[in-house]
Structure formats: C-alpha cells, structure tokens
Amino acid sequence: MREADVWRNVSEAEFDNAMEGMEKLVMNRLYDYTFTPQVARMIPPRPITSDDLERDRVLSQRIALFGWVEPHHLDIPEGPGFEGFLMFAQQELLKINHYKAPRDKLICILNSCKVIFGLIRHMHKEEGADSFIPILICVVLKANPDHLLSNVEFINRFRNPTKLQSEAGYYLSSLMGAVSFIETMDHTSLSNITQEEFERNVEEAIQSLPRTSPPTPSPGTPVVEGPNSPGASSALPPPSSHTGEESAQPLSLPVPTQAFSEDARRLFQKTSDTISKPLSAIGRLLAEAEESLASLAPLDFAKESDSPSSSRPQTPGSDAQHAAQQRAPYKPRVRRVPSPAVPQAPHDWDGMPDETSSRPRPPPPPTNRPLAIGPSQQPRAQAPRMQLLVPELQTPSRTPQRTPHISRAPSPSLDLAGVQAEIDRVHENATNASRETLKQIFPTMDVEVMELVLEANGGDLGRSIEALLEMSSGT
Amino acid sequence: MSKQFQFKLVLLGESAVGKSSLVLRFVKDQFDDYRESTIGAAFLTQTVALEDGTSVKFEIWDTAGQERYKSSAPMYYRNANCAVVVYDITQSASLEKARSWIRELQRQADPSIIIALCGNKSDLAVRRQVSQEEAKKYAEEEGLMWGETSAKSGEGVNEIFTEIAKKLPKTAPPSARAGGARTGAARTGVDLNKQATATGGQNEPCSC
Q: What's the ipTM?
C-alpha cells in the first residue's frame, strides 16, 4: 500500500490514517463474510468455520444466570453516582454491535474502560487493576452484549496487529480475563454469599430463562459447550441492525449557534462528524432507566421531573458544587428517558434511512427543532437517547403536555414561587454534579471545554460524556 | 536520537501490597515525559534513560491481586519480558503469595522472563515481618532480582526499575520486541504482514 502513488510521499501520520481508513473500508465491505453472526445470516448459507456462535450463546446464557450478582459480591464499594457510571460503562460496551470496523468495535471496549476509570476516580479509590477488574466484570455481567466473543474474536482476527499492542492489548486482555472469570465463577469466587444462596439464585435464574434455552449446567460448575445442535443458530436472537458504517456520517448537534464562538462550533462540528448513534443500545438503556426510575423515591422523582422547565443555571463553580457531588449525578438524565408524555412530532424520524432499530425510543422534544438550524442532518441530531433534554429550549407551552409527569408531584397545590426555587436549586445541583462527573472521567481535559460541551448538550451528562470520549479518542 | 527499546512488564502480587502505588510513583515521579495514560492507571508506560545512551520504555501491565482473579493472570504475563512481583514487608503472608507467583512464572511464562522481587512499604520498617536477609536469600536461590521500595516516600522505586532496564537484553530490534507484546493464542486469523516481514524485515513496505 505504501508503494502506491497516492501514499508514496505522505508522512507517517498520514499513512497511518490511510491504513486505518483502508481497514475500515475493507472490513465494512467484508463484514457479512467475516463477522461470524453475520455469516450465519447469509443467504445462501455459507459454512461457518468457527465456534464463535456457540461460545457466544454459552457465554450469554451463563451471564443470564448471574443477573443477580451485585457489586458487593465482587467487593466493589458502592457510592453516590455508582449506578450511573455503571450504566454508562454498559452503554459504551453495548455499542460494540453497532459498529462494523474492528477499530470502532475496539474503541467501544476502550471507552467502556475509560468510564470505569471515571468511576474509580469518582469513588476516590486507588487506580489500578485491583479496583478496575471487578468493575469490568460487573459491567460485562450487567450489559451482556450480544455476540461478545464473536466481537472480540473479530477484533483479534482483523484489527491491525500493531494496533492491538500496548494499551488496547491490555484492555482487550482484561475483557477476556473478565469473560473467563464469568465462565468459571462459582460461590467461592464471590464474596458475601453462601453456597446455598448462590445455588438458590442460580436456580431462580434458570427458572426465569426463556424456554428455548438448552439445559443449564448445575450451579458451581463451569458451562461446558454442548454439542452443536442444528437449531443453535436459528435460536439466536433476531439480527440487530448493523448499520455500523454510519460513523462516517455527520451528525449535527442541536447547538444554539449564536452562543458559541467559531472555534467552539468547529470543535463541535468535528465531534459530530465522528459520533454515530448507538441505537441498538437504546432499548436496553430504556429498560434500565425504567428500573432506576422505579427505584427512585417518589418525592425525589417528582422534584426532578419538573426541573427542566426551569431556566438552566449558567454560572459554573458555585458553592453548591460539593454538596451536589453527593447527589446521584445521573438522575437528570435517567428520568427523561422513558417519558411517555413528550409529544411526538410526526416527521421527526423522516430522513433517517439507516435507522432500522426496532427498539422503542422516546421522541425528541419538538421544541428543539427550530433551533437546530441548517444542517440537513437535523433529524439525526435529534436522535433518541441523546435528546433527553435541552432545558433552556423548553417553552412554557409544553407544560400542559407534561401533565402526566407533573401529576406525580406530591402536592400540586404548592405555591409556584416555592416550587420554582426548589426546581432551580435541584437543577443547579444536577448541573454541578454533571460537571464534577466529567472532571472525574476526563481529568486531563480542559475544564472550559467540558463546560462548553455540557452546555451544548443542554446539560445532558450522557451526551456530554459521549462527545468528550469522541474528542479525546481523536487525539 | 537515542535508541529506544520497548518491553512489556507485568506487575504481580497480592492486593493491598501497593502494586499500583508503586507504579504510579515510578511513572509520575522524576521523569518529565510522563503523560497521563489515555484510559486509566491499570496500563501505564514509562521510559528510563540508561547511561549507555539507550532508553528503555516499559509497558506496565497491572494485574488484579485478589485470589479470585488468579486464573486470568496468564493473559497478562503472556509475552512479558519482565515481571515485578511485589510483597509487603509488614505481611509475611504476602511473601508467600509472591513465592507462588514466582513459581507460576517460572513454570508458565516465557523462560527468558526477568523477574524482580520487590518488598514494598519499606517506610513501615517498624512493623516489619519479612527480614531483608530472608527475602534476599530466597531471591538469590531463585535467581531473581530483589529490592525494597517505598511507594510512599519513593525510596528504591526508580532503582529497581532502572536495574531491570539494565538487565534486559538490548539485542532485538525495538519494534520486533514490542511486536511480541500481543500475539496470543487467540490470534488465528491471517497475518497480512507476515510475508512482508519474512522477505524484507520490518521496514520494507508491504506490497499489497
């Protein structure tokens, strides 16, 4: 490749980029022939030359048996914000099935690890493998991504070997270590649990598994691969949409343009160009968000559910910051997700040809549309999960439409000024907490950049993390 | 430009002996070229300049010390050029654990691996349970390097890594060394670079 006219005289860095581009191009085209779960779906059928699918199935089922494993079983200390970080780490890992190129899949793994280190810093634990590995295991158990082993093998086989050394190699090995721990774990490998409890939990998990599952091994013994039954591949979940090539497609963030300098806008444009939507992760996220919602104290929920209608505080670094840290920083984001009350704009999803995910999505707040000016990709910019909220764009006219939410408030007859003050306070806390969280995940990132990104994403933490991950991975 | 060699170093030892602190001390102290690693502190790199004008870049792979993760250790020490096995001088049990790691390395790891035994927490000498003589004797019997360190004060930390750097063979071309860092049994695919390497070495362009 180096000898071709086009690349003969380019610098090493440019050539490296060209190699990356070539790998992506080739692997995107060959995806159906090289990624085992895709090969299995080919028509006419092609022979499958690896046992990836069987291993995927076995692992996935094994993980399903351990859905009850909680952080304390792995001696992971929990604290405020823990669940949120864990959820983001899962979400990053789950994106792996949304990309086709080996590099992109690998980046999903690395991003997930990066969020885990954000959590470790957040908990003020010593950074190192002692605290990292247990959390990684926890994330794999909770996320249970489809075809995890096929994905890892795909990366091993098709990623440029020189790019699988060093840091990437370390974290890929760690993921494999986490998988092998899960494959062999029994009650002796967990803390705070007796053999009886362990077996009872596994037994219950077996009962609740779908009927299509093959016989499950007795608890405490590693799963042994059974004979490859002919129905094995047809029993797999239906193909998820692998629209993984779209990371090349630009996406515009709904940034109120007048608020930013030219530089900042370019930065966001650059970021947008590389972000692609983790649509397949959304359904799962929704389910989890609903769970978290259910677990919130009603009062807490009610307070927060109103907050977006308040004006967003713009001043950074207030005294409330420290106190805010004690709050679970992700609630603002979580509470939005399953909102059934946001009205659907009928044509919001037009012009999204690659949007084939069939999972449920919350519609974007329609009030965003007038401000997401210009770029023709506007509908993409309004993609679901990221949408959550852009509080300053909420107009009073939306309030009636949100009635179902508000009705959850404990006392509708409260005096409005008091409510407003409370709302402002809560919201400010949430914003400060988000800011702290970003600092923990990106300790080396310029604080002002984080402020801008947070602001540009309407205070949405999840979205900001994604934007920052993209930005930092590019450097 | 001085010649740089790259080596994979795996860090083993019971949890709470201060493995991670030891490496953080090594990586963050003294050297100017410390760069925040891109993901987290479980994987760090640090370069040591030697008197002969060469420099050695360590890729440091931290491992989880808890017993329950022992079975995944081979994934980490595979293809490692050197290992630092850490114990806590105030906990004699941690030396026992270090011995079992060393036995495993001697059995399972690359035969040419250089192993250093490192007694950490030398600042807590008043609570010492492992004498210098005992550890040193054991290290000599097994042909290991040995030293005591304090991740807290920094004492002995750079010394032990520099000693390892000196002892590592500087024969293979830098890139080839680094290339050994990740070629697991997991790799079964086609290596497109193989042919180019076989015919012309690392610097020859691939003709595909």
A: 0.82
